[in-house]
Design goal:
The complex is a heterodimer of chains A (293) and B (484). Chain A has twelve helices and 13 strands. Chain A is α/β, with parallel strands linked by helices and 293 residues long. In chain A, helix 2 links the parallel strand 1 and strand 2. The longest helix of chain A has 16 residues. Chain B folds into three domains: 177 residues, Beta-Lactamase (2-Layer Sandwich); 91 residues; 139 residues, Heat Shock Protein 90 (2-Layer Sandwich). In chain B, the strands form three sheets. A five-stranded antiparallel beta sheet of chain B has the order 2-1-5-4-3. In chain B, strands 7-9-10-12-11 form a five-stranded mixed beta sheet, with helices on one face. In chain B, strands 6-8 form a two-stranded antiparallel ribbon. At the A-B interface, strand 8 and helix 7 of A face helix 2 of B.
């Protein structure tokens, strides 16, 4: 009798003892990171792996936010609805007052990249952008440097505007889709982030093979990772530390390889001076030029 | 050889095959036609619903001049692996703007943006020229025989304003491919069905033909001789063929019976003729014979004769007496009514035949089923029984059995004499009762003749049944009916 009672008591005690595994961790607010198609951001499985990598190293939840255009991410970051964002150098230099530079990826050993002018592989004649007069042209995003600003700048230098120079131009809202638009023949020319084109040629050579690079732009600062002005220095520092150390562990190396970059560095604001100069020139030209819409 | 002359053995399976082939060749095209029709209806219905969805979705990209979105929308069905698209999907999709220029298409290389679609594909001119009349709710279908395609045009409208036109082109090639596939399948299935049904048909046909063939075979065997109905093996069933076989068997039995009857008539006619002849001859012989015997007797009684003459006369007399006896035996004449046949007669008969029983060393058994005197001439019956028994003793080997059975019914007296001696062959039975037909050595061949004549005169019947180890003579004699 007494034995049974002992056993029952023991069972009861076990039932109500909080197990060590069920202990709740103190909830930290998630780190919100905006992503733009400056890299191949349409790989959900990869993003999940990267997110859990960051969560593991930051020891807090991470939320990736993706939107249809650079501008939406830009606005969210400026409004403080995002903590960090990986976006293009062009939006960064326009919002230098609101954003802080966190890290710049190293591509082929340098924090630089090019803009490619591409045409369908079947087009063997085009030598420069000017040859695409009265053709259909695909831009990636109005706020993209390589996918919009640079070709616009080239035209502006000749006192031309895309709307009148091309028979028609349109935005695909993603570098990868510019390549697809040109590859499918929908557009007869397109401006694309050289890094994205190179990376795509690694994973989907059948798409890039149907395009031809006509010209490469001079070097520009690689699309950086920036922070909202509202993010604390501590959070920024933690994030930087994780990004800079990605090359130091196996998992990080695999992720960097998937991203096709060598790592992240602190970077320098002057990297984006070239973009800033082009932006200033183009904006002045826009103001002066007669509107032909 | 005419088709009519082919044996049923082949005709029925052939007919089954023809039936199967005809059925298959009628059904297969109907099914193929139906299936192609269904496919087309399906495709049109599919295209119709798809075009509505796409047209609806395209409104915003067109309003926003978002070429890429429009391209992505129309291109979505083409992202499915190509082999699946071929079966049901469109060849290409064309989106025209309000001015009927290409806004976007799934084949930008063929239909570049801003180009005039009619200049590229003249087949759609009719559709393009009537885009103004297109109703949003009812896509219009146009078939072009030149390009082997059909087209479906849907209006893209927003708030009653026509923004553009969606044109979907469908190749008719899948129909053709489907047609060939279906036809091939139909032929294959027909062959398979034939392969299954033909052996079945052959078997079935043979089974159907078998009784008929059996019947015809049996009929062809009937020439002079009728086969024994017992030996004819015909399938008996309740269908027409079975009934035919049954009737045939009955007919054969009746024929056989008739034949036997005819044989009997012939035999008895012959015996009757023989009897008349014998009686006539005997009568003609008896008259001079009586005179001759009288003369010899008179001559012997008068005067002394030398011994040679006497000896000669004796020889003549003996010869004449022998002739007389023979003739007397041939000429069986029913004597006048003596007295009824009773058990004493049976006892006499047994006594009389006893020496022969002993001589032949046979077992003689009797079975007498009469008690009182029977109204029939005892002399004749005795003669019949004695003759039958003597014959039986002779025909029976030593230690053999002879059985006598006497019985009666209301109007007849029956005498059975049964022995287990040698068998009388069938061909001899017909001549058995003719005079000088001796079965045994040393017999006169008149015993059965005499019996037959007596039986005939008494108005009775004599039959013989002979099998191996069992020969039975049955005599049936009518009894005189007591006078009222």
């Amino acid at each position: 009798m007494s034995k049974i009672r002992c056993l029952l008591l023991l069972l009861l005690a076990l039932t109500f003892t909080p197990t060590p595994f069920a202990r709740e961790l103190p909830v930290k607010p998630p780190l919100r990171i905006g992503l733009t198609p400056v890299f191949l951001d349409d790989q959900s499985a990869f993003l999940n792996t990267w997110r859990s990598y960051l969560e593991q190293h930051l020891k807090r939840p991470v939320v990736f936010t993706q939107r249809g255009s650079y501008r939406e991410i830009m606005d969210l970051l400026r409004d403080g609805k995002l903590d960090f964002a990986w976006l293009c150098g062009y939006p960064y230099i326009r919002n230098r007052d609101h954003f802080r530079l966190v890290a710049v990826p190293l591509y082929r050993g340098v924090p630089l990249y090019h803009s490619y002018l591409i045409v369908p592989a079947t087009d063997t004649k085009t030598r420069t952008l000017t040859d695409l007069s009265n053709k259909i042209f695909a831009f990636s995003d109005p706020d993209s440097n390589s996918g919009h600003l640079y070709p616009e700048y080239l035209l502006a230098k000749q006192n031309l505007q895309p709307a009148s120079f091309f028979a028609k131009n349109f935005y695909t809202w993603s570098h990868r889709k510019v390549v697809e638009a040109v590859a499918s023949g929908l557009a007869q020319g397109g401006a694309v982030d050289g890094y994205v084109w190179d990376t795509l040629s690694r994973t989907h050579p059948e798409i890039t093979a149907r395009t031809r690079i006509v010209t490469e732009s001079p070097e520009f600062g690689f699309p950086p990772i920036v922070a909202s002005a509202r993010v604390s220095m501590r959070d920024t520092g933690n994030f930087q530390k994780v990004l800079f150390n990605m090359g130091h562990d196996d998992e990080g190396v695999i992720l960097l390889d998937r991203l096709n970059i060598n790592g992240f560095v602190k970077g320098d604001d002057h990297l984006f001076d070239g973009i800033a100069d082009m932006a200033r020139f183009v904006e002045e030209q826009r103001v002066n030029a007669p509107q032909r819409h | 050889m005419h088709l009519k002359d082919i044996s049923l053995n082949y005709k029925i399976p052939l007919r089954v095959a023809v039936l199967v082939i005809v059925t298959a060749s009628v059904l297969a095209p109907v099914l193929v036609y139906r299936s192609i029709g269904d496919l087309r209806d399906n495709m049109v219905a599919n295209a119709d619903s798809m075009s509505r969805v796409i047209a609806e979705t395209l409104i915003e990209p067109i309003l926003h001049d978002d070429v890429w979105r429009a391209f992505e929308i129309v291109n979505t069905p083409f992202r499915i692996p190509q082999d699946q698209v071929k079966a049901q999907g469109a060849e290409y999709i064309l989106v025209l703007d309000a001015a009927n220029k290409v806004f976007v298409s799934t084949q930008p290389e063929k239909f570049p943006m801003l180009s005039d679609p009619v200049a590229i594909e003249p087949n759609i001119s009719q559709l393009v020229n009537h885009t103004q009349e297109l109703d949003k709710l009812n896509p219009s279908v146009m078939e072009s025989h030149k390009s082997n395609s059909f087209y479906l045009a849907t209006a893209i409208q927003s708030d009653g304003v026509r923004l553009g036109t969606l044109i979907m082109s469908y190749s008719r090639k899948p129909f053709e491919e489907r047609f060939y596939t279906l036809t091939k399948a139909a032929i294959l299935i027909t062959l398979l069905v034939l392969a299954v049904l033909l052996p079945f048909g052959v078997y079935w046909g043979r089974r159907m033909a078998a009784p008929l063939l059996q019947l015809s075979d049996t009929m062809s065997k009937i020439t002079h001789e009728l086969p024994d109905p017992e030996q004819i093996k015909l399938e008996e069933s309740k269908d027409e063929i079975g009934q035919l076989a049954k009737s045939f068997k009955t007919m054969l039995g009746e024929l056989k019976e008739k034949e036997q009857l005819q044989q009997q008539v012939i035999t008895s006619d012959r015996l009757a003729a023989l009897g008349r002849l014998a009686a006539g001859v005997a009568h003609e012989i008896n008259n001079p014979l009586g005179g001759m015997l009288n003369a010899i007797s008179t001559f012997k009684r008068h005067g002394e004769q030398d011994p040679l003459t006497l000896k000669t006369l004796s020889i003549l007399e003996r010869g004449l007496v022998q002739i007389k006896e023979t003739v007397a035996a041939l000429l069986v004449e029913a004597k006048a009514q003596t007295r009824p046949f009773d058990l004493n007669d049976v006892a006499d008969i047994c006594t009389l035949v006893q020496p022969d029983v002993e001589k032949n060393r046979v077992k003689f058994t009797r079975e007498i089923d009469i008690i009182e005197a029977q109204p029939i001439s005892s002399t004749l019956v005795r003669q019949v029984i004695i003759n039958l028994l003597l014959n039986a003793f002779k025909a029976t080997q030593a230690q053999g059995n002879v059985h006598l059975h006497i019985y009666r019914d209301s109007a007849h007296l029956f005498i059975d004499v049964i022995n287990d001696g040698s068998h009388i062959p069938q061909e001899k039975v017909s001549y058995l009762f003719e005079p000088f037909t001796s079965m045994s050595e040393g017999g006169s061949g008149l015993g059965l003749w005499v019996i037959y004549q007596i039986v005939q005169q008494l108005g009775g019947l004599i039959t013989v049944q002979s099998e191996i180890d069992h020969t039975q003579f049955t005599v049936q004699l009518p009894l005189e009916q007591p006078r009222e």
